[in-house]
Amino acid sequence: MDPAALAEALDTAARAARPLPGGGSGLTTTAEAYTVQEALLARRFARGERPTGVKLGFTSAAKMRQMGVSDLIHGRLTDRMEIPDGGRCDVSGLIHPRIEPEIAFLLGAVLTPGGDPAAAVAAVAPALEVIDSRYDGFRFSLPEVIADNTSAAGYALGPWTPAGALGGLRSLADLGVVLEVDGRPAETGSTAAILGDPLRALAAAARLAGPLAAGTVVLAGAATAAVPLPPGTYVRATVARLGSVGLTTGEGS
């Protein structure tokens, strides 16, 4: 397994919207997988993308059991992945996009591994994450999805609510979440699906990818199952107390 060659193959698959077959990468360990992920992001940074944050995967206990893992995984966010709230997501360059509702944290101070996540948070927002595996049919091994930057493709952030306005961040532990597609509920859930409390996901992000600098955006993980994202669709996520965030899909420029 050549990390640089696999990173190049994943990068090419994403840019050409042509999937790779899963299961044939030769990756066997998570350490190898993160090496490939770093090489993949290095290619993108060399083209001018800038890091903006971190995203987490497998924050659902059910998903961990399904994949046979006992820990979370993480990927990286960049400025070219951000979609304005109410803006347009061009899905023509994606392979088989899906979308899921999340909550996002904005750090106002450095968060070190083992540090107090609540003390580092400046604000919280509803979020949407667009995912798009570069493996055919979303079929992959655990190391392969890590190498593929945890299927990250895009994200949209709703309005930021200052942490001090929430009466304590423990109030985030069980907020209702609704994902609507073209005005109709597609999924409903709770922020409790994110490790029982999204702050635990933030602490895990620091442990796995930290230290995290002030200004970092952290997507804490999905609050419901992901749904397909075809062109010509309006999607909105609403999180109790935090508000809503939406986007419209299209094709081409």
UniProtKB/TrEMBL annotation:
Keywords: Hydrolase, Lyase. It comes from the Bacteria. Pfam families: FAA_hydrolase (PF01557). InterPro entries: Fumarylacetoacetase-like_C, Fumarylacetoacetase_C_sf, Hydratase-Decarb/MhpD_sf. GO terms for molecular function: hydrolase activity; lyase activity. Transmembrane segments: none annotated. The keyword Membrane does not apply. Residues 97-245 form the Fumarylacetoacetase-like C-terminal domain. The keyword Nucleus does not apply. PANTHER family: 2-KETO-4-PENTENOATE HYDRATASE, ACID HYDRATASE. This is Fumarylacetoacetate hydrolase family protein. It comes from Streptomyces californicus.
